[in-house]
């Protein structure tokens, strides 16, 4: 009898782990339909052709989350200029979301931001169904709140980057913006970005695949190589912005 109970318990734990699996880079973003502060959405289909930053926060009416939403609202236009839409989520209900966003707009100030008007959709996820699809519930951190997860999803609905922060740590928005520009730069120019890269810095040119390509590199004045596998060139910030900004 005890063996039977143990087997049932293990099966339930395995199901929970499967439901709360973290999607990986290169996978199609898990699909869902949800109610939001901007109406119902079908994700990611409704955002096809756009980059999406899907992010979770632990709870409404909490200080760190409030500071983040004010920052997201203040930067929404910058993300839109890069063809990116913001979509938020927590396991709170729609009425809580609406009341909280009104409080943010009417009362709160952070880093000189005040009157922040959050216009992007905020998902109601009381059932935690969406949070579990994206591995946002980390039981060792909290079984009742989502951690601060961030998913960068490209216009084809593919997950390109994911970040997870604990409940106590607010996100770096300069880094979120840099990631989006870096992903788009890599796609548009067929390059990679080195450590601490900022737009206008040198980028990494992929290693030559053939001897002919290697020879072309040697004769290309725009490319400098420290060794066969470590070649760089410069793409100006202006050139990047011309290519990726709306």
Explain how this protein is built.
The chain has a 5-stranded mixed beta sheet with strand order 7-4-3-8-9, with helices on one face. A 3-stranded antiparallel beta sheet has the order 10-12-11, with no helix packed on it. Strands 1-2 form a two-stranded antiparallel ribbon. The chain is built from 7 helices and 12 strands. About 4% of the residues have low confidence. The radius of gyration is 21 Å and the shape is elongated. The chain has 2 domains: 152 residues, Glutaredoxin, CATH 3.40.30.10; 55 residues, Antioxidant, Horf6, Chain A, domain 2 (2-Layer Sandwich), CATH 3.30.1020. It has 246 residues and is of the alpha+beta class.
Describe the SSE topology.
Blueprint: H1 2-19, E1 32-36, E2 39-43, E3 51-56, H2 63-80, E4 84-90, H3 94-107, E5 109-110, E6 113-114, E7 122-124, H4 129-133, E8 148-153, E9 159-165, H5 173-189, E10 202-205, H6 211-218, E11 223-227, E12 230-234, H7 237-244
Parallel strand pairs: 3-4, 4-7
Antiparallel strand pairs: 1-2, 3-8, 5-6, 8-9, 10-12, 11-12
Keywords:
2 domains, 36% helix, 246 residues, Glutaredoxin, five-stranded mixed β-sheet, 12 strands, three-stranded antiparallel β-sheet, Antioxidant, Horf6, Chain A, domain 2, alpha+beta, single chain
Task: Give a quick rundown of the structure.
This protein has about 250 residues and is an alpha+beta fold. It contains 7 helices and 12 strands. The chain has 2 domains: about 20-170, Glutaredoxin (3-Layer(aba) Sandwich), CATH 3.40.30.10; about 190-245, Antioxidant, Horf6, Chain A, domain2 (Antioxidant, Horf6, Chain A, domain 2), CATH 3.30.1020.
């Amino acid at each position: 009898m005890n063996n039977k109970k143990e087997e049932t318990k293990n099966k339930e734990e395995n199901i929970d782990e499967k439901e709360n699996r973290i999607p990986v880079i290169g996978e199609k973003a898990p699909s869902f339909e949800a109610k939001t502060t901007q109406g119902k959405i079908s994700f990611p289909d409704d955002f096809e052709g756009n980059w999406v930053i899907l992010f979770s926060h632990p709870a409404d009416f909490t200080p760190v989350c409030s500071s983040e939403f004010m920052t997201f609202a203040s930067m929404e236009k910058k993300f839109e200029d890069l063809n990116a839409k913001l979509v938020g989520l927590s396991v709170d209900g729609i009425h809580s979301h609406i009341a909280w966003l009104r409080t943010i707009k009417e009362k709160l100030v952070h880093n000189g931001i005040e009157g922040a008007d959050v216009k992007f959709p905020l998902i109601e996820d009381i059932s935690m169904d969406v949070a579990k699809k994206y591995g946002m519930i980390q039981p060792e951190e909290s079984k009742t709140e989502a951690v601060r997860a961030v998913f960068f999803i490209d216009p084809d609905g593919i997950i390109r980057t994911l970040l997870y922060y604990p409940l106590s740590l607010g996100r770096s928005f300069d880094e979120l913006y840099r990631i989006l520009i870096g992903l788009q730069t890599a796609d548009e120019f067929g390059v990679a970005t080195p450590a601490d890269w900022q737009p206008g810095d040198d980028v990494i040119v992929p290693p030559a695949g053939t001897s002919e390509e290697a020879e072309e590199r040697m004769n290309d004045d725009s490319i400098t190589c420290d060794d066969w596998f470590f070649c760089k060139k410069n793409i100006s910030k202006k050139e990047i912005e011309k290519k990726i900004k709306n």
